[in-house]
């Protein structure tokens, strides 16, 4: 589903974000991407969504190389790739329903599709009863559920989560990760960049650790830190 072939990324300011990354993520896999701040986690996610282009190497998503992707094709790629952020990035002047519907409307979806898919997605993430509320009226967990619904409403093949529990308390973090696990169980490929050691250790999924932009460790059913049993 996702393949990195000897990918390196150097930003225009000279920062070496990624160095010789080779990584394969299978369809339907759940992968934790760990490492301290500034080690390349967000840059790796941005490569998958073609937000940045590698300086060297190739990124392949769903069988298509992204290096030669024409600008007009990028929106079609991003329909396959949902993104969830730490700070939610909701539109504060829109209700929960309108935030999720907007993700469909910008792709040209019909009103019929919007009316069919929005309530189904809100129900999936457990936020349907808040559909008429605005983001400032929601808890942090409810805002993150809304953001997840927005990322899911286009039925993406891949969900990229950049510190999805970073602004949440431990109980709410556990609820959000349980939701992501259920979404993954339905077949969505999941990459979660996180500093949340407790969740990584409890869930025991594949763990890839980045250090200075390189893969330092890749373990099936791994823990946040190596050598913890």
Give structural notes.
By secondary structure, the chain is α/β, with parallel strands linked by helices. The protein has a domain at 2-89 and 156-219: P-loop containing nucleotide triphosphate hydrolases (Rossmann fold, 3-Layer(aba) Sandwich), CATH 3.40.50. It is 33% helix and 26% strand. Strand 9 and strand 10 (214-219) form a beta hairpin. The radius of gyration is 17 Å and the shape is globular. The protein starts with a strand and ends in a 10-residue tail after the last strand.
What about the largest sheet? Answer: 6 strands, mixed
First-residue to last-residue Cα separation: 30 Å
Structural class: alpha/beta
Average pLDDT, rounded to a whole number, is 93
| CATH H-tier superfamily of one domain | P-loop containing nucleotide triphosphate hydrolases
The strands making up the biggest β-sheet line up spatially as 6-7-8-3-9-10
Total number of beta strands: 10
SSE string, helices as H and strands as E: EEEHEEHEHHHEHEHEE
Radius of gyration: 17 Å
User: What is the CATH architecture descriptor of one domain?
Assistant: 3-Layer(aba) Sandwich
Q: How does the overall form come out from the CA principal axes?
A: globular
> Any low-confidence stretches, pLDDT <50, length ≥5?
none
Q: Which CATH C-level class of one domain is it?
A: Alpha Beta
| CATH fold descriptor of one domain | Rossmann fold
Helix content: 25-40%
Structure annotation, total helices? 7
Strand content: 25-35%
